[in-house]
Structure formats: structure tokens, C-alpha cells
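Anyone have C-alpha cells for BTB domain-containing protein? Sequence:
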Amino acid sequence: GKKLHVSKQFMSIHSPVFKRMLCGSLTTRNMKIEIKDVDYQEFVEFLNVIYPSFQKITDDNALETRSSL
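Reply: yep, here.
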């Protein structure tokens, strides 16, 4: 599979699911999580929206991001 390196803080702020997964007492600094049932490109779009960047939110990526999570 493909790997993405992301900040636990950003993921936790923007997703209650990731907050539970990443902020529990058993988490580690270099924790790896396998994400299933989500298209890779759709997840990258989600990351582009939540990370500070120049990614513009459009009708297309807003709907794709919301439906995938």
C-alpha cells in the first residue's frame, strides 16, 4: 500500500474517529494506521483540505471529502 506521513494533531482536530485512534493512552510516536475502504486520492484530498495550504475548497472536493469520511 501507499504511505502518507501526517500529523496526529491535525488528524485529531479534524476527525473524531482519528482523535480516538491517535490520542489514546496506547498510542506511540511513530504509530502506523492502515486505512481501508477509502480511496487513496480521496484521502489525499481530505488532507489537502485540513492541512494549511493553498488548496481551494471546491464543490467537487468538498463533497468527495465529506462522503469518504
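The CA atoms of residues 21 and 27 lie 8 Å apart.
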